[in-house]
Structure formats: structure tokens, C-alpha cells
């Protein structure tokens, strides 16, 4: 089985590769992987935890994945260095191909300099899409999946002429509409066109537009997204149901996030940050059925590197109208909570493909902050939904 990562050289992408390799070599156990829970025992018959990796990136293309992981390690020490050393030979063989930064916003253009992109070679959108498709076709076999773990893009306004139908989208590619099409859409388009299941681990648009949903159905490929639910939002969507079950009224919920590293730098730019805030902010209202006052903030805090910290404050009202407060602090290494989910999602999507599923797999909502085609944001219910779907599929 093969896994293609858009944004391979990021800390999430590279840590997912290192993790899979470490587990296969017996250097780490499977803690953190949902797909390794006893509930999903039979998944290994369809999608074992064994991948070959490839991917696109837009920087440091002269380096290999081992050198990239060393750079991330220097800043983060995010896992035991002895593991990295033991993986050296394997990781040195993996190199990213040149991708595109079309529509990625000032955050990416400014913070990831010097960029190496296909548009810098003078390619048009149509030609960029063809190059990405060709890279994928060269890499893929019938058991390949692609996940977007590239930096967060701004979300362009929905334009029915371009995003509404596959025909309109392909016309916009031919007309080089760089104002309407972003890298994540091109990646999703190229993967789906190649018959490769696609997941969007970021808040970028990816495959969520009707044009690409149409493509997925036309070619008969499953896809999922958006935005991995790994930290503060995971805790929020696990705790918010408690207030609902106990008939407590949430008056306000403040979530204040600080992080460093590349992701933090990119998210320090207003346009890029907007996509993330929208994704994080709406979950409380969706779970409670009403919208309390919310503050959702993300700020860059360089010295933390990937050690993302979230401070949440909940003001709520109980019996006899009495107001009370609840606080929590989530202090986690972002890539360590994210990377296993990338592998989980890839495995479940491969199962879906093998079982003939096509279009959005809404039952993978458990893994996402902004799940497509479902209003279920409650983590507990999402987990039940995942298990039911899995059991139905393997029994079929
Ligand atoms: N817990 C988490 O870490 C978490 C949770 C949910 C979502 N995400 C999202 O996952 C993504 C990756 O996070 P990260 O911490 O690894 O960030 P990162 O900045 O370390 O990595 C992003 C990588 O993508 C590359 N990139 C940027 N634009 C690209 C493009 N258009 N094409 C190809 N490559 C591109 C960058 O060069 C970099 O190597 C971000 O969008 C982040 O918001 C992360």
C-alpha cells in the first residue's frame, strides 16, 4: 500500500512517515493509532499498517526526508532521537516532488521562502494539474491513498461558475483562473482523477466543492475531510456534550491557542488564520443546538515550537440560575497527536475503496473538525458512527 502526502516535509507529514517506519521496525508501539484499537482488528486484512511513501512539497526540495526530520527534531525533540537514527537509511530514500502554492496566501508565500513551485517554471493551472497527476500516476498502484497535510490556505469565496460543477472547474483550469483555484483543490482533483482516495487533513478547501464531489462520484472514489481533530477541538467536542447531557447552559466558551513552528508562522497571517478559526469555532454551537458567546483565538508563540497550548474557559449556568466556571489547558505536541490520525484516515479510506464506497465518507467525521456532509460533531457519537460503519463494511 502507498501513501502520498501533499506537504510531505511538514512536521505532521514527516512524523507520520517516521511513525509508520518505527512501528514496522519494532522501535515503537501502536499507541495513538485509532485503527489499531481492538474494535478495528479486521482492518489489517484490508489495509495493514504498511505504506510506501511519496509526496509533494514547495521548499527544501534538495533535501531528503531524513534531513527534513532532523531539522524538525532540532527544533522540537518530538520523539526519541535514537528512533530517528535507526530509520536513517530508509528515510534518506524518500524525496518530495515539486508542488504548487497557487492560492496559498501571504502566510505561505512569506513564511516558507524560498519557494520552489511549478508555477515558477511558468506552468499554467492546467499544466500544473497535469504534472501533479503525472507524479501521482507514476507513484500509484491500485492500493494508494493521498492525504493533504500542507500549510493552511485562505478559503476563496465560493463561485458556482468555477466550484459548482466539474465542467466549470475544468474550464477554470484551462482559463488559468488563479484567483479561484487553490493548491489543495488541484491536489484533490489530481488524486481523484487518478482513482486515488483523498483526505484533507487541513482547513483548506480540498475536495469539499461540488465540482470535486462530482468527480469523486464519477470516478467512484471515496474522500474525506476537513481539518484533523487532534487537540483543543477534540477536547471541546468531547466535553461540550457533557453540558448538553446534564442540561447545563453554556453561556460562553473561550479558546485561546498559542503555537510556534512553521504552522504557527503561517497561521499568524490573517487570511490563513481565518480558515482555521472558522473550523474551530463552529463546533460548540453545532453540538449544543444554540450558539453561546465564543472567542476563538490562535496566536504565534515562537519558543513553543510545535508544543501547542490551548487555554479554554467555559462559563455555564446550572440549577437555580447559578453561574459556574470550568477551565482546561491542553498542552500537546501537535505533530504527535496528528501523525497517527493521518495513517488511520489513510487506512480507513483504503478499506472504503476496497469495499466499493464512493464520494464523501461521512463516517470518518470522528477524525475531523469540519466533517463533510454530516452535522454530527459530538466525538462520542462520531466514534459510534465509525464503529458501525466499519462493522457493516467488513461484514459485507
Ligand atoms: N495537530 C496538528 O498538527 C494539526 C491538526 C489539524 C490540522 N493540521 C494542519 O495540517 C497541516 C500541516 O501541519 P504541520 O504542523 O505539519 O505544518 P508545517 O508547516 O510543519 O508543514 C506544512 C508543510 O506543507 C508544505 N506546503 C505548504 N504549502 C504547500 C503546498 N501548496 N503544496 C505542497 N506543500 C506545501 C510546507 O512547505 C511544509 O513542509 C496544516 O495545514 C495544519 O493546520 C495540523
Task: Report on the architecture of this protein.
This protein is an alpha/beta fold. It folds into two domains: 2-228 and 336-395, NAD(P)-binding Rossmann-like Domain (Rossmann fold, 3-Layer(aba) Sandwich), CATH 3.40.50; 232-333, Dihydrodipicolinate Reductase, domain 2 (2-Layer Sandwich). 44% of the residues lie in helices and 17% in strands. It contains 17 helices and eleven strands. The protein has helices spanning 11-24, 43-46, 65-76, 81-86, 88-92, 105-111, 125-139, 160-163, 166-174, 183-193, 210-219, 232-245, 261-267, 270-281, 283-288, 334-354, 379-395, and strands at residues 2-6, 52-57, 97-98, 144-148, 198-200, 222-225, 249-259, 293-300, 307-317, 323-333, 359-360. Strand 9 (307-317) and strand 10 form a beta hairpin. The two termini are 22 Å apart. The mean pLDDT is 95. The site of nicotinamide-adenine-dinucleotide has 35 residues, from helix 1, strand 2, helix 13 and helix 16.
